[in-house]
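FORM 12-B: Structure-to-Sequence Request
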């Protein structure tokens, strides 16, 4: 295990300091924006929410020192094993996240089912994609809702969450110009 990965696990376990989670979705084989985002953000963890699952694998191979959490999307039927979980729900950087592509929750017609499932899981945030429409907001009950949009279309967009001691400090959307400022 490399030193950076070891430090990640130690930091996550002990809650040492602020950690950054880069959230990506709907890359559709357009890797340029994803790679730029990883270079600019220097995340402690990456979440890829599907379409295309293979793109997340490429990121994981190129960045073996950064944990990559990934779920398949509606375009990934033949891109991953059939037993691959369509939803993940566990702590990332000390914060419990509900991660899914969203197509099975009907997110193009509304968020009711998705938000209900995330709340039932006790998650601090729900991360989803599928619509290609970026959205980041906080519900009245404190649940963070993040759709990073598409990192493969329209110039690209992503989400960035910062966590510390099991809570979300900030959550925002990133565009190309934001990445330029971070370099």
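FORM 12-B RESPONSE
SEQUENCE OUT:
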């Amino acid at each position: 295990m490399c030193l950076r990965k070891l430090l990640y696990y130690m930091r996550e376990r002990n809650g040492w300091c602020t950690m950054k989670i880069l959230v990506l979705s709907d890359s559709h084989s357009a890797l340029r924006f994803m790679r730029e985002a990883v270079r600019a953000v220097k995340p402690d963890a990456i979440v890829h929410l599907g379409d295309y699952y293979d793109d997340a694998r490429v990121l994981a191979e190129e960045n073996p020192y950064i944990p990559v959490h990934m779920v398949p999307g509606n375009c990934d039927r033949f891109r991953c094993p059939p037993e691959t979980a369509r939803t993940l729900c566990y702590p990332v950087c000390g914060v419990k996240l509900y991660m899914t592509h969203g197509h099975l929750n009907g997110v193009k017609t509304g968020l009711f089912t998705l938000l209900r499932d995330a709340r039932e899981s006790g998650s601090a945030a729900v991360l989803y994609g599928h619509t290609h429409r970026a959205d980041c907001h906080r519900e009245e009950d404190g649940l963070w809702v993040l759709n990073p949009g598409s990192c493969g279309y329209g110039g690209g967009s992503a989400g960035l969450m910062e966590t510390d001691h099991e809570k979300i400090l900030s959550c925002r959307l990133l565009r190309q110009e934001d990445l330029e400022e971070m370099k």
